């Protein structure tokens, strides 16, 4: 074997000595990357062991290291390609991958907080984020204080000397309020407090957190980046090198990594993501506007419609909307009737984790999800149960007909 393209990195290349026994040849075939082969797909490079050319390379750590690659869980060429693509799309300099969106949220907590610290979390944060915070408060000596997502500059009054982190979500889960992130960031920066945003709804495309001075963005790649309802993955993104190194170090200690095959699936979906998002946006606005005219509906909570709290901030800060919104039905429909309406839908499936091609519907009883008395907001007339809708890629004429039929069958009286 004299082929200099052999991919085995050992100086003492075993493939160069084919006079081995068959068992050795079975383990160490001559690996070759065909010269001149190019395609649009990223190679799926799996690997737990990373092979070093010599011991000096194995022993070199940190700044002295001559190879970037150390161990499969930290990074592979495939995961790195995904990190770079995600960072580029959202305007970050770095991304870290986690086995789920919730894993990404957890990493932010554990990387930035220690016992005695304080964190502010909006009422409408993604439910498992809230539960994660409650766990940290119960068992880890961290204070986690909920705040009204529409608080804006008023957040300054909540910041304490030990406040280290302010979470935002834009818009928030289920109730869809769009926060005044500029005012929250300004108050946080004035006090040296870090800000993190769960930016899953905009897929990192319609809202640019780093241009707004937000320190950290979290993505549930499970949603639009996957687009197929078949991958679980999350990302933490940031623009600051020091912050990146700090979070990366904790990710290493936690032993969190992702499969190269899953990375490949997400890499395969990213090129179509902006076009898919635009289609979800168009369809969701059409359905939302139709719903806003219905007599059964008290209020449509879609950031691009004026009835949604924070609509003005959506106009100021976003370049588009995604496929997820909520509708508040009139107070005359009790929970059981709203449940019957959702179960009567034929094209909307019942389930979590939007971002794929299929439309979804889930009813929520918001009163039990946030501090007493904070829902419905003061002044809302006739507000009853909430149904969250995700508009997939079906034809909107069919989706609207489905909603109409289920309303006429179940939301009577
Ligand atoms: C789905 C979701 C997550 C969690 O993502 P998983 O990959 O399911 O853990 C986090 N934040 C938001 C806003 C989400 O919608």
From TrEMBL:
An individual GO BP term:
L-cysteine catabolic process to pyruvate
Which residues are modified to N6-(pyridoxal phosphate)lysine?
Answer: 223
What EC class is this? lyase
Coiled-coil region: none
Would I find Lyase among this entry's keywords?
yes
Reactions catalysed: L,L-cystathionine + H2O = L-homocysteine + pyruvate + NH4(+)
Which InterPro entries does this chain map to?
A: Cys/Met-Metab_PyrdxlP-dep_enz, Cys_b_lyase_bac, PyrdxlP-dep_Trfase, PyrdxlP-dep_Trfase_major, PyrdxlP-dep_Trfase_small
Cite the EC number: 4.4.1.8
State the similarity comment: Belongs to the trans-sulfuration enzymes family.
Keywords from the named record: Lyase, Pyridoxal phosphate
**Would you say which domain of life the source belongs to?**
Bacteria
Q: What's the protein here called?
A: Cystathionine beta-lyase
By its UniProt entry, which Pfam families does this protein fall under? Cys_Met_Meta_PP (PF01053)
Gene Ontology terms for molecular function: cysteine-S-conjugate beta-lyase activity; pyridoxal phosphate binding
- Source organism: Cupriavidus cauae
Q: Identify the cofactor(s).
A: pyridoxal 5'-phosphate
